[in-house]
């Protein structure tokens, strides 16, 4: 098996995509039954890749093509052979690592099949008492909708003129009947972030009356994560819950790993509603992602560069936009979103769904520079 | 990048473990930062493998170390780079493929995070009406416990003297207050199978009074799957639901993919309780598993050989056992299960948890021949 190995000589300095491309080619060769990676097999593979170019550029789902980290990919590769095992031991280890990183007890952590499952089960639990939930419009609705299904009334507060959460207006809507205040920070779809001092004061005050849920799915894409995260409030015993995910900054949306940080008694109560369970490869990838110190700052820089370049295009076309802090940009197209989406699709770019009531605005996810070049060219045509 | 490739010359005839071992070595080399796979790196890797030998042999969780299929492993490897994508498109394709294989409409299929999620959500849905659920003891309790949490009373019918479901005794327990009859076939932990003609007649008759749930998690490990599956009853419109999983025969327990086959209106109602979502690598692995025609018969043969060899040891020690049809054997140890488990652990073998009320019986999962050699030696010592 002398030749059955990978040279790793250039790996540490090799770009992840180039490396995976080369190994990917090897494995593509295996599946088509070639005896060796002949030049014709490589040519075929390149033709396949080029055919894929004609597939739409997907900038619709806030997925992060800069991930997963090399270390996460390695961890998954090394565990492929072990995927016949349930992930109990590995999940326990990940939970412990997360608790250490967050500076809380393990009893404060609830693992979820993505943070989506945390939003669902927290919503189902709180929704059992009906009442009202206070949130913003447009905002991310998964937890709010789970409460609504259980009979909770949704109180939607408009964003301010910068498309930010209007905390004073939200506080004014909190009554004895409020079961939760939900804040997605940075907000989806607008990408705006709340001033951390104001949010902290708001959460401390409001959480005396009802639980406050801070969805930090995109916060790791923002500058100054440490200054902005509200996990410290959970640590200090306030009735605040925080959700986080490996789907966004860590580029593991497909592997469905997220978690919540909240009071231990809430962890227990909320867990009762969970019907999912974590997958081994997702868990080892998430663990490796946390251990890859270089990944996060490098990826935040790439996302930020992508945001800035996209804003330049949008500004250049004279359009308004919300100040972005996630891996996406929300801007005014000046036409109905359905029309804009159709025109962009004709240019081979998929953009996000409508976000009522802002139906002449659009959300575009930051893709690779290659993807964004297609997107920029499309925008210059469609917005002209 | 001339050397950065895998020779695939001997892959098709190469044993999966040998192949993965060699590639695994390459990747192990990468993570420790070696420049090449030096002989010292290989020696270290072998030392690591040998150290792992001292880890317990896990025969406790009905995991299947003969899986996943090579094609599933390939599919996962080829999709590592894409794990930043949500699995929506791939999940829809898998669902379509499953519907075709099962000979039902897509509307009859509900995907789950393992069949465990199907058991949970079906149980939560049916449990909302309280009432009673009829099952056996000892049996698999996940769905029954979900109903019980919602307020349903559990009616447990003893197994017959062959440790099989006693269908007549179960039918006698069905009343106007019965919300479901649950049958795990082959049963867990006993491994016994129900006569298909009798089960079919039972399910047709009882399903006129209440839903019948057939958990076929292990049925693909049995002989004559086609003669034994009850999916035909769903096809014919009976109020029967069937659950199936990729965790057992297909060796993908870690990747959490399962499904249910049931009436379309039940699919919709039950889906409301789901909080999980499928992971990309699990979905592509499941899809590839279904497309690997050779895998299932080969693996069933390996499991059957393992069962027969284990039965020979148990019989040789003069112990009673249940006729096994899953990837495990249930037998009488003649001592309390806690004592037996301790003695086996001392011999480096982990066996399954207690299954009351049969507390001097034990369940052992079929592992690799290497694992089973350790297990057989331990049994000969412990049962002597």
Characterise the protein shown here:
Two copies of one chain form a homodimer. In chain A, helix 3 runs antiparallel to helix 12, helix 4 packs parallel to helix 12 and helix 13 packs parallel to helix 15. Chain A has 384 residues and is an alpha/beta fold. The N and C termini of chain A lie far apart (59 Å). Chain A is 44% helix and 14% strand. In chain A, strands 3-9-8-7-6-4-5 form a seven-stranded mixed beta sheet, sandwiched between helices. In chain A, strand 6, helix 8 and strand 7 form a beta-alpha-beta unit. Chains A and B meet through strand 1, helix 1, helix 3, helix 5 and helix 12 of A and strand 1, helix 1, helix 3, helix 5 and helix 12 of B. Strand 1 of chain A pairs antiparallel with strand 1 of chain B, so a sheet runs across the interface.
The tally of domains of chain A stands at 2
- Number of DSSP-assigned strands of chain A: 12
| Series of secondary-structure elements of chain A, N-terminal to C-terminal | EHHEHHEHEHEHEHEHHEEHHHEHEEH
- What fraction strand of chain A? 5-15%
Per the CATH scheme, the topology name of the largest domain in chain A is Aspartate Aminotransferase, domain 2
Distance between the termini of chain A: 59 Å
The largest pleated sheet of chain A is described as:
7 strands, mixed
Strand order of the largest sheet of chain A: 3-9-8-7-6-4-5
CATH class of the largest domain in chain A: Alpha Beta
State the helix count of chain A. Answer: 15
The H-level CATH homologous superfamily of the largest domain in chain A, spelled out, is Type I PLP-dependent aspartate aminotransferase-like (Major domain)
Q: Which pair of chains has the greatest number of interface residues, and how are they split between the two chains?
A: A-B, 79 and 77 residues
What is the helical fraction of chain A, as a range of percent?
40-55%
């Amino acid at each position: 098996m002398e030749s059955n190995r990978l040279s790793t000589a250039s790996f540490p300095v090799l770009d992840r995509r180039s490396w995976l491309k080369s190994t990917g080619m090897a494995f593509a060769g295996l599946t088509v039954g070639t005896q060796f990676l002949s030049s014709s097999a490589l040519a075929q593979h390149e033709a396949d890749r080029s055919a894929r170019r004609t597939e739409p550029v997907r900038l619709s789902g806030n997925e992060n093509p800069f991930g997963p980290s090399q270390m996460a990919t390695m961890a998954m590769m090394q565990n492929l052979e072990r995927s016949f095992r349930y992930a109990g031991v590995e999940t326990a280890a990940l939970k412990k690592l997360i608790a250490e990183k967050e500076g809380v007890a393990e009893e404060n952590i609830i693992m979820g099949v993505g943070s989506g499952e945390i939003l669902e089960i927290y919503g189902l639990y709180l929704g059992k008492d009906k009442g009202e939930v206070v949130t913003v419009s447009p905002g991310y609705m998964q937890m709010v909708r789970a409460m609504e299904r259980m009979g909770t009334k949704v109180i939607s507060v408009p964003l301010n003129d910068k498309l930010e959460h209007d905390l004073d207006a939200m506080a004014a809507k909190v009554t004895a009947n409020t079961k939760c205040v939900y804040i997605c920070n940075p907000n989806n779809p607008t990408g705006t972030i709340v001033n951390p001092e104001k949010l902290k004061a708001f959460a401390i005050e409001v959480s005396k009356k009802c639980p406050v849920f801070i969805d930090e799915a995109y916060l790791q894409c923002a500058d100054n994560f440490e200054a902005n995260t509200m996990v410290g409030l959970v640590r200090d015993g306030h009735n605040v819950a925080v959700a986080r995910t490996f789907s966004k900054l860590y580029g593991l949306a497909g592997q469905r790993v997220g978690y919540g940080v909240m009071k231990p008694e809430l962890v227990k109560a909320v867990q009762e509603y969970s019907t999912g369970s974590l997958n081994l490869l997702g868990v080892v990838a998430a663990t490796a992602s946390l251990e890859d110190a270089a990944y996060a700052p490098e990826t935040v820089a790439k996302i930020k560069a992508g945001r800035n370049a996209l804003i330049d295009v949008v500004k250049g076309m004279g359009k308004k936009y919300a100040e972005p802090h996630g891996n996406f940009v929300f801007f005014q197209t000046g036409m109905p979103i359905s029309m804009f989406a159709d025109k962009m699709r004709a240019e081979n770019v998929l953009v996000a769904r409508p976000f009522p009531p802002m139906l002449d605005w659009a959300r575009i996810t930051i893709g690779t520079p290659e993807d964004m070049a297609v997107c920029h060219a499309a925008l210059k045509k469609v917005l002209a």
